[in-house]
Amino acid sequence: MKLAILLLAAVPAVAQTGVNVLVVVNDSSLFSRRIAEYYVHQRSIPLANVCHLKVDIAEDISRQAYDQFIEAPVAACLASHSLQEAVLYIVTTLGLPLRIAGSGAELESTTSSVDSELTLLYAKMRGVKFKANGLVPNPFFEKAGLPFQHPKFPIYLVTRLAGYDFEDVKGIIDRSLAAKNRGKFVIDLKSADNQPGNDWLRAAAKLLPADRVVLDETEKVLYDQQDVIGYAAWGSNDGSRNRRFLGFRWLPGAIATEYVSTNARTFQRPPDTWNISTWKDTAHFFAGAPQTLTADYIHEGATGCSGHVAEPYLITTPRPDLVLPAYYSGRNLAESYYLGIRGLSWQNVVIGDPLCRLGQPTH
């Protein structure tokens, strides 16, 4: 086992529990209510840690409505039960708005995901002000050698329990409870060049046990892999990929990440006949884009997946060389993803149970 993995494993593996989670429910959504009820029961979340909102179920929300109907009530829930410090993770649910509508070009956009904006709530409740445009540096980024705790890291780690329907989300929760540290990490480059994304994929492969890595550096796409516990690739940005679903057999606890701009653009289910295509093929767009969908990985059997509600740019996508080794070494799902995400108040969404952990390797 490589030295980097040993160093990661040296971090105290604190098994956080339901008392460290705040669940946000949109009472306007039947999906949200059912998901929250099931998750709260399965993870023994205290009732004081369940925050009920009433907001429109549309996936887009204005900045003003977000401030009034989501951020302010969540802050009130935390304050009323003195949970600001104990809560480390916030769980949002399918049926809560997904994206804060905005404007602006490139890295100065005011658009962001609801979840990424909520990460800043800890600091905001302590009086910190943030600009509306662009991203805010993530203080936990690359801090693999440190435990996640307040106030050292003045943020909440926010994940979402979402899929195409209740059964998809129930699957996330059930599989997170059954997660074990076994199976293969499948890492698929789109070519043999040295662009940063491929460098991160190669680095991830080197930081994981060689006997548990399937690495492909050719033009082909890896389909139909068995016993997958982790996956990183270019998704539909790999010009050789022509299948919507990978055909993987995902193990309980499996997570995925890909360099795709709009994969969390919606959690509405496409027609079964829909397939990924190219930006030139506008006739076959779904929800405004031709790209792969985060929810497809969940629907196929993954336990966690990252995505983006709008263009994040490569530099702000989750770094697989940080995410996958952390997850393998015992970090929970939330901490593993956020170790690899450079910015907050941005386009990123993390799907999954924050408490999901693989535990020690099994063979």
Describe this entry's structure for a reader:
- It is a single chain.
- This protein is α/β, with parallel strands linked by helices and 363 residues long.
- The protein has two domains: 143 residues, no CATH class; 163 residues.
- Helix content is 26%, strand content 17%.
- The chain contains ten helices and 15 strands.
- The strands form four sheets. Strands 10-9-11-12-13-15 form a six-stranded mixed sheet, with helices on both faces. A four-stranded parallel sheet has the order 2-1-4-8, with helices on both faces. A three-stranded mixed sheet has the order 3-5-6.
- α2 runs parallel beside α6, α7 runs parallel beside α9 and α9 packs antiparallel against α10.
- It is globular.
- The N terminus is likely disordered.
